[in-house]
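TODO from last week: model Beta-xylanase.
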Amino acid sequence: MRLSTSLLAAAGAVPLATAQLHELAVKAGLQYFGAATDTPGFREREPYPESYSQYDAILEDPKEFGQTTPTNGQKWLFVEPEPGVFNFTEGDYVADLANRTNKILRCHALVWHSQLAPWVETTEWTKEGLREAIVRHITEVAGYYRGRCAHWDVLNEALDEDGTYRKSVFYNVLGEEYIRLTFETAAKVDPEAKLYYNDYGIERPASVKTAGAVRLVKMLKDAGIKVDGVGMQAHLHADNHPSEADLINTIGMYKEVVKEVAFTELDVRIKVPVDEQKLQWQSECYQKVVGACVKTKDVCVGITIWDFYDPFSWVPHVFPGNGASLLWFEDFSKHPAYDGMVNYFGELIEAQGGNSTCS
């Protein structure tokens, strides 16, 4: 999966070393290659203010990233910290950045069992009370961002590891009804946005969780409820990841029930310490995602990495002993995976009859 020197020398071709990820993704037939980001001064970003200027220059480069997602700012904890009290400050940071730099905005996430405001989990809910809270939350948040979100991750991680419904506060009170209510409400509030079900561990075709995601979406479609896409988070492992063929087969399963899919939170964690072999495995994993998406571009619309700068990654905080999951090291040098993807995009473009010229 490397582009030969002879291909690089093709008439009029720009050397791929000068090309960047979003421009290559678009030339290969995708809608975007993007990177999620978070609010400066908070969470993983807090200890690294000296990095912001160089980080921002990379993030805002339209040839590098043509799409972005707020990693945290639109979650329930931040936008509705008290019942009926809404604060869009953190979500607006990323939405405004997307507008200012002409990036596609994927919005994330309307209903999720995690990062809830404490009052959601501590209230003794009646069914009617929780229905009203869900509808109010989606109406206010999706309504506020209406017209700005190309995609909404409407429901996030509603499945357990065995493919059954996660026993969240929403499911425990309302059962499967809350899933239908969530998508029905989102469709009414922002009918132009593409509405996604988003989850991790749904990238392999033989996974019971993948089968669960197909069942969930089919349930919605059978009920006449709008759901446009499936988001495969793709938090993957360098030393044990799906093959390109597996990813393609999984996308084929989702194509049976939705019109589009996306890789929505891609990162590839490495067990520390990092070494050359692990970085090679990581590069191969990133390339397999690129290949799978481009080879199914009739349904796979794009790839989002879950931030791009290693110090801002969530991975080492949640999975001790793992790290270096993104594309730029702390000193802003690039992982081998970056060039690996550039080269494989070029090979795929060449196979489609292009000349790898990037405008």
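Done. The two ends are 23 Å apart (CA to CA).
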